[in-house]
């Protein structure tokens, strides 16, 4: 039984791969390296003391997919490959629909052709849009406010129809909140190829003195300290959630939509202060304007994950900050 992991050298997938390898699963990874580095393959082999195949290529390449499926007896696919910048999706929506929706359709076509029906999809909290109530539960209306979120919702709609069309499909759509942190080996972590847009990787570069200061995007929201609040989740908790989701689809076919979050929001200032406290580093800050399209606050209801997956996040905000920084230090010294 082999699991194909698309986008396998990216941030979240590489941590899921580490957890699965540590649980003795057989894996094959595919990535086109548009937002990751090939060295992550060796690092994963080193930290798990396991060897596994990596294919450099695109999930939209049907010929390559057929080859991977014929080279290995794949029984399940975890589909992480995707583009994830909201700002870029607003500038170039076709790129996002082609990669995120088109890529998923190509992959599903090959799976259907070859009779592989277990599928885990990296969806996102962005499918919900402006909160009508909080925490978002899985029945909250879905009205994404940007093409990135729309691309995730379109894939979810396709998966729903697919599951309804053939009872062999067993699909989990996991709606992630804000993944941060790094593997305890500190060999893998979040390493965007371009300038980071997200708070934690940007803050890492400020702490490493690669950037002079962090701009806080608005401190006049109606939140406890005026800054935006999000549901940050440790990437190792998220990785373990994927193992639970795999166990679920192996025994229960159909379509499962599940939030993966902690259920607790934290503000920008809380994240910065926690980071400073646990690392002893200081983060110079400037208060800037609100970022276009930002929601003041959102967080998950984690109840369904607890009921259906018997999973809940256990790591703290301090764990997330410390592991992110230890990975950054390790990376800077390598
Ligand atoms: P990432 O950019 O680190 O990983 C994505 C990986 O997919 C990269 O290694 C990239 O090179 C690869 N990739 C992209 N398009 C590809 C293609 N067409 N063919 C092959 N490989 C391709 O991002 P991540 O943060 O690890 O996110 C993984 C998934 O989770 C994405 O689908 C993303 O949309 C989703 N997600 C991420 C977040 C987040 O905040 N990080 C939140 C919700 C959902
Ligand atoms: N944020 C910030 N400065 C930055 C990046 C992000 O103040 O340089 C804030 C942002 O406004 C939001 C929170 O940090 O309130 C999380 O932003 P991120 O982009 O990481 O996640 P998302 O908004 O996509 O959930």
Automatic annotation (TrEMBL):
<protein>
    <recommendedName>
        <fullName>UDP-glucose 4-epimerase</fullName>
        <ecNumber>5.1.3.2</ecNumber>
    </recommendedName>
</protein>
<comment type="pathway">
    <text>Carbohydrate metabolism; galactose metabolism.</text>
</comment>
<dbReference type="GO" id="GO:0005829">
    <property type="term" value="C:cytosol"/>
</dbReference>
<keyword id="KW-0413">Isomerase</keyword>
<dbReference type="InterPro" id="IPR016040">
    <property type="entry name" value="NAD(P)-bd_dom"/>
</dbReference>
<keyword id="KW-0520">NAD</keyword>
<keyword id="KW-0119">Carbohydrate metabolism</keyword>
<comment type="subunit">
    <text>Homodimer.</text>
</comment>
<dbReference type="GO" id="GO:0006012">
    <property type="term" value="P:galactose metabolic process"/>
</dbReference>
<dbReference type="InterPro" id="IPR036291">
    <property type="entry name" value="NAD(P)-bd_dom_sf"/>
</dbReference>
<dbReference type="GO" id="GO:0003978">
    <property type="term" value="F:UDP-glucose 4-epimerase activity"/>
</dbReference>
<feature type="domain" description="NAD(P)-binding">
    <location>
        <begin position="4"/>
        <end position="321"/>
    </location>
</feature>
<dbReference type="Pfam" id="PF16363">
    <property type="entry name" value="GDP_Man_Dehyd"/>
</dbReference>
<dbReference type="InterPro" id="IPR005886">
    <property type="entry name" value="UDP_G4E"/>
</dbReference>
<comment type="similarity">
    <text>Belongs to the NAD(P)-dependent epimerase/dehydratase family.</text>
</comment>
